[in-house]
Amino acid sequence: MSGLFDEADPSEETAFKHAVERVNAEITVLPRSRLSTQIERLSFGDSYHASNKVCQMMREGIAAIFGPQSPEAASHVQSICDAFEIPHIETKWDYKIRKENYLINLYPHPMTLSKAYNDLVEAFNWETYVIIYENNERLYTLQDLIKASAPSTRKAVLKQLPEGDDYRSLLKDILYATDIFNIFIDCSTDKVPEVLKQAQQVGLMTYHYSYIITSLDIHTLDLVDFSYGDINITAYRIVDPDRPEVDAIVKQWNSHISVDNYNSRSHMYGGPYYVYNDILFFLQTETALVYDAVFLFGKALHVLDSSQRIDIKPLNCDSKETWQHGYSIINYMKMVQLQGLTGLIQFNTSGYRTDVQMDVVQLKRDGLRKIGTWDSKFVTKFNWTKQDAEIEAVQDDTIDLKNRTLTVTTIKNDPFLMLKISTEPLTGNEQFEGYTVDLLNELSKELGFKYNIKLVSDGSYGSLNKETGKWNGMIREVIDGEADIAVADLSVNKDRQSALDFTMPFMNLGISILFVEPKFKAPELFSFMNPFAVDVWMYMFYAFFGVSIVLFIIARVSPMEWDCPHPCIEDPDELENQFTLLNSFWFTIGSLMQQGSDIAPKATSTRMMAGIWWFFTLIMVSSYTANLASFLLVQEKDEPIKSLQDLARQDVIKYGCVGTGSTASFFKFSPFPERVVMWKKMEEWNSKSPGILPKDNVAGRDKVLRDEGKYAFFMESTVIEYAVERVCGLYQVGGLLDSKGYGVGMHSPYRQYFNGGILRLQENGILDKLKRKWWKEERKGTGCAAEGGESGVTPLRIANVGGVFVVLVGGCAVAIIFAFVEFFWENRKIATDEGGTVVEEMSKELKFALSCSSNSKPVKKEKKDSLSSQEGNGEPQDSNQYLDLGLDSYGFPNAPPRANGGINQDGYT
Ligand code: GLU
User: Fold this and answer.
1) Ionotropic glutamate receptor C-terminal domain: from which residue to which, for each copy (predicted)?
2) Given the CA of residue 663, which atom of ligand 1 is nearest to it?
3) Are residues 562 and 673 in the same domain?
4) In terms of pTM, does the model score above 0.90?
5) What is the DSSP string of 834-861?
6) I need a surface site. Which of 70, 152, 544, 773 has the fewest CB within 10 A?
7) Residue 693 maps to which CATH number?
8) Is the CB of 491 under 6 A from ligand 1?
């Protein structure tokens, strides 16, 4: 038998030699023949030497060729084997799926693996996931997974690992994708640790994330760094170390080192290993397959050997001669069955491995643990071992919280943790009170632990210095073991979660803006205009104008509107129309102002026009009145900022947040450039005038009050709610900018207990009770009620209705101007008629008007000569001529003035 092996990796060569030794040693495997080996080492991918070496080995006579590993060299060897009918045995993953007569590959077929991965994703109910793959060839193994995501509800995002060894930007994209928590990694085994390490660096190694890794050799990797984060890392393995055959074989290989050491390592990584030249090797799949392949060959040879004599024949690469037993051996290899290191080995007629069974393994705190098996031949593919939770529960029973005294690190912040007001000197836990203390009391009652409260030494919540990779504040204290748990208003975020374990949130919140309460705006002068928008006023004006014109026109057209000018004339020569242009406007404005006029339309058309106009005015006036009250009473607030964007756009109002908390991280590590710019500004302002980024919320709140409208503070909604309730003049601007929760930070052994405790407190309503107690009841003080003073309806002030007065004064002024123009015009005419001056006439008239001595005044007659020029048709032309007789222009006495003071058609009363 010949083996072509990679000179850089001796593991397969060792397995090959051991396997041949065992086949020769075990008389039952090959009783009538013995295997001898020829081994050649090649550098990876060296096809030329591979072909030469095969020809050289054939000259000496061979029954089968194993290897080589590189796909290019393997193809060359394959064509030689095909030509000379020598069995070729491969044990590596090959996407090309070659179906050659003289080839047999023990590695599970890519399609079998593809189904296995798809089944696992289905079993885990992954709906959205990202597939990280190394190269396009590997996609053959992911076919089912990709196909399944296309038409169904499953959504897969494909991402190729970049060249080089920096995958952080790809991993960060996954971190920022809000809907992806499932990661499928398909890359060569040696790249897996680096990908996982960088995932941990960017914050993807938290218990929110689940991973499936396609490598079948995950047991050969050191995953201790990832085993404490409660991250779901799942993979398949084909070599089951718990099977006695595997154990026995590995122990044989492993005779160089002590059994104790073997057990501990094997337990930690969940994989068997062996020693070669004093170097520890974990049993890789391909190595195990080489071992199995030798046994398979031995078994096939034995079957053939039993029926005929087999001779090894030297062959020459330059001749056409072939080996007559090659075809039979390869066929027997496809027919026989074997229980090997990689489970049951059997093939279908095409020479592909069938009935593959693999273990599903998951990373736990104590290493890889088998959680089930996958079997390609069953309809229900998975057979899960004992539920994970059950196992964990059994393990966690060993961690007993009862009677343990936990050191609790916390921080002062109203109303979470405050110093008790007391005349007595207090010590220990007695010094403190607040929501956190009550929560700890309740949890300690539930879980049976005792606790000592300690204030965090650096007064910080905890932020990560990305350059040094170091934490500060409460997070550091728990990481370094200075405290067992951190209980405070400690927000859970991704970075923190990668450093510590957190319980489920006991309170939900989001970041918002604290600012001084805005003042009320002074009412506008013309606020009576506000019930209608400007365009409505405009349209009303157009409507008024249009309707007046239309009314004028249709009245002139309609015969009914042409009337006898005086009731005493029975057969008039002329008819008169009351809807002059001026009267039409007077009619529409009269009804719009709800006053009416004594112009009454008579024709159907004008009445319809009038009716529809009245309907319009009714609705408009009612709507105006309905809206007016609220516009006059409701006072608008003068808010200089309404959102985060308003703050970002300006530099006059400075802003800040707690410098070492999660709010600072919210800006600092934000994916949105606007927020990062805001953070830079905060840092710059803070370096010039410290206090922009205070140490705690109380300092920030006080600065907001002190700076009166010149400083806004980003604070968590829970604390804003408390501050606004207690301190007058504070106000929350806008809604929440994010959504998160406060959790208890700790190392994972306690998490299960604390989660259970918090859930019980939530279900019993205790968390709500504590919230009410510390936000509404305790330390309430006088509150701001006194300031709110006035309630109910407030009387309108002059500022509210000032505009109406302005309009009145304006209207009066215009009326006076018109009166003066009329007065001047009339007196100018009289002065011209009588030959006096305008000033004389005006002063005479003014004296009479202002003397208020009489309500009647003599009529001024026009001079005769001015009249004579108009006497052409024998009829008087100027109505003034008849005024002194008390007759109108038709020779009838003037109509008496109206008693009701209403507006007559000429507009005189
Ligand atoms: N609760 C925050 C934290 O856990 C501190 C306050 C803040 O950053 O606004 O870091």
Assistant:
1) 405-777
2) 8
3) no
4) no
5) HT--HHHHHHHHHHHHHH---S--PPPP
6) 152
7) 3.40.190.10
8) yes
